[in-house]
Amino acid sequence: MFTPADLPQTIPVFPLPGALLLPRARLPLNIFEPRYLAMLDDTLRTDHRLIGMVQPVIVPEGRDDSADRLHRIGCAGRVTGLHETEDGRYMITLTGVSRFRISEAKDGFTPYMRADVDWSSFERDLGRRETDEDFDRAQFLKVLHRYFEIAQLASDWDSLKEAEEELLVNSLAMLCPFDPEEKQALLEAPTLQTRRETLVTLMEFALRGGSDEGSLQ
């Protein structure tokens, strides 16, 4: 368990479109680019073993500011699993610790990007699992089942019926094939309830074929 005092001011950041990490959730990654292999080697030498996952943004033509290439809010994960393949890749698992806000991106000192980060808005991420008092599991699973059908996704429905609220909502937020901006909206949701509401909205939007008209019941 981390406390606010354990969190470093500067961390390496890994911009990966569509790869969402949330506190207390696990994200498997396949590391093969030389700069990110170097990032992992350096991270494993630290006490915290934290890597910040962030979503890249589209930079307007003519601008090349490093801070503008990334969303300001990301989530740091601790390297909790590592396997090196015969061809030199790393298969790792990150366990989400806390979200952060980028204060300043740093280029030039390493082949990968680092950033000064501010953790102060996300103290709840270091606490216990969140609950959602207004969670209607039956209605949620009804929408989810319809979404999985159109997205041609399979699942173990018995496990979904029994999963804890946070594990269920956060796992689906990470796994569903939403676009990077939608993933960012799920990341920035301040509470489990607002993340669940955002997740349902995105699924209903997909069920309407991307139209804002109408509402599912």
TrEMBL record:
GO terms for biological process: proteolysis. It comes from the Bacteria. This is ATP-dependent protease. PROSITE patterns: LON_N. InterPro entries: Lon_prtase_N, Lon_prtase_N_sf, PUA-like_sf. One of its GO terms (molecular function) is peptidase activity. It comes from Halovulum marinum. SMART domains: LON. Keywords: Hydrolase, Protease. Residues 11-207 form the Lon N-terminal domain. The lineage of its organism: Bacteria, Pseudomonadati, Pseudomonadota, Alphaproteobacteria, Rhodobacterales.
